[in-house]
Specification:
This protein is mainly α. The chain is built from seven helices and no strands. The two termini are 28 Å apart.
């Protein structure tokens, strides 16, 4: 499941729990009806400002919306990334010397942190 889909489902559920129509939410949040519809259907990525505004209108803390989104993502079957393998791959690609090597070592250290 994509993040935008999980956000859309969480927003739609919150709106329906409050008995609001999409039009009512769009009017109250000053977000266009078509755009809000696209967000709920997971077709558009909502900015943090839009999410904060819509959450406020729904009487829902943004953090609660994000927790619900995370719960939905956690329940979806998704492959687990092996970041250690990616780090190992990147260290083999490092240049041997010079400024590029220094930058690559720094980037690798940031990835490892």
């Amino acid at each position: 499941m994509l993040l935008r889909h999980a956000i859309g489902v969480a927003l739609r559920d919150a709106r329906l729990r409050r008995g609001m129509t999409l039009r009512q939410l769009a009017d109250a949040s000053k977000v266009s009806l078509p755009y809000l519809s696209e967000i709920e259907r997971g077709r558009k990525e909502a900015s943090s400002e839009i999410l904060a505004t819509v959450s406020r209108v729904l009487g829902l803390p943004l953090s609660a919306l994000l927790v619900e989104t995370g719960r939905r993502l956690g329940n979806a079957e998704a492959p687990v990334l092996d970041l250690t393998a990616r780090r190992r791959e990147r260290t083999h690609e490092l240049p041997a010397s010079g400024a590029a090597a220094s930058t690559a070592r720094r980037d690798t250290q940031l990835l490892a942190a």
